[in-house]
Amino acid sequence: MRQVRVEFTVEPFREGALGAHVDAALGSLRDEGFEPEIGPFGNTVEGDARPLLEAVARAAAASFDAGASGITLTARAAGGEDAESFLAAIRPVVRAFGGRLVATERMGRAAVPLVWKGRVVGGIERPVPSDLRNGLASFVVQIESELGGQLATLSRVDKQRAVRMLDERGAFAIRNAVDEVADAMGVSRVTVYNYLNATRSSSGP
Questions:
Q1: Does residue 175 sit in the same domain as residue 94?
Q2: Are residues 7 and 54 in the same domain?
Q3: How many CB atoms lie within 10 A of CB 33?
Q4: H or E stretch including 168?
Q5: How far are the Cα atoms of 12, 25, 55, 75 from residue 44, in angstroms, in the given order?
Q6: Is the peptide bond before 51 cis (omega within 30 degrees of 0)?
Q7: Are 46 and 110 in the same domain?
């Protein structure tokens, strides 16, 4: 079942004390097996979507019965945005060690799983000792230096320029180069092929 994370604030806010209306909400959630995190300006609780949302509804009712004047709720699928930020942050580190970040559905048996909040959100393919592999990494470093940024942060036009420059230097003769460049740019391999085709067509015979 999908996990969700609910952030909730119970009003009126009383500095230095939770108040009976807040305690009622927290106690209701705990009675149903959830353990909310208490923050200075709000509280969060995470769990399976259906039972959690039903429990939050009962907690809200208990809070109003105890004198709450208002409750603000925000529910999000757990791990989604956080996982994307995590993967974006780790990508340069993985590349620096010669590895490759892959989506969950593309993970091979040798891939090292990346687990975020109890869920596999991707994997790392370990570097393969190969002069050709190292050569591709060198090409990418050169291009990033010349264009002034990592491939993933470049504009669409500069990504097209990067593909043209890599092609001119023979980078795409390296096995799996299209997949690796696509991963580094944060685009699909089809997009890289489209850039390649456009580059080669414009250059003529």
A1: yes
A2: yes
A3: 10
A4: helix 156-168
A5: 17, 11, 13, 10
A6: no
A7: no
Phi, psi of 48 (to 5 degrees): -60, 140
Q: What range defines the domain where residue 7 resides?
A: 3-78
Residue found under tokens 């990067």? 162
Q: Are strands 70-77 and 3-11 parallel, antiparallel or unpaired?
A: antiparallel
Q: Contact, 150 vs 140, CB < 8 A?
A: no
CATH number at residue 9: 3.30.70.930
CA torsion 176→177→179→182, rounded to 10°? Answer: 180
Based on the domain organization, do 130 and 171 belong to the same domain?
yes
C-alpha 140/C-alpha 166 separation (Å) is 8
Query: Model confidence over 56-115: pLDDT tens digits?
Result: 999 999 999 999 888 888 887 765 556 777 777 777 767 655 667 888 877 777 778 888
Boundary residue ending a domain (78, 98, 128): 78
H or E element that contains 198: helix 189-203
**What are the tens digits of pLDDT across the range 138-192?**
888 888 888 988 898 999 999 999 999 998 888 887 878 898 899 889 999 899 9
What's the chain's length in residues? Answer: 205
